[in-house]
């Protein structure tokens, strides 16, 4: 299953804090079905079907605009492994098993 990392940075907000924008994005994620997600200190990891990931990321992109940002910078990385099943948990377990 594809796994994506998304970071959304609102610009032109007049402040340096981003937590209200992150919280707004996570409210959107909480309402989405068919995906798993995990907040990290530097972004959010999303796991789900590729079309669902792209659809959700588009919604997340709009959150800062809805909250008054005048510009949004979005970084998206997708790991779409098709030779075997992958998940957030499996990727972490694979590394931990080698430690």
UniProtKB/TrEMBL annotation:
Name this polypeptide is given: Thiamine-binding protein domain-containing protein
Taxonomic lineage from the root: Bacteria, Bacillati, Bacillota, Clostridia, Halanaerobiales
Similarity section: Belongs to the UPF0045 family.
Organism from which the protein derives: Halothermothrix orenii (strain H 168 / OCM 544 / DSM 9562)
Cross-referenced NCBIfam families: MTH1187 family thiamine-binding protein
Domain Thiamine-binding protein, chain residue ranges per copy: 4-96
GO cellular component, as recorded: cytosol
InterPro entries in UniProt: MTH1187/YkoF-like, Thiamine_BP, UPF0045_domain
Organism domain of life: Bacteria
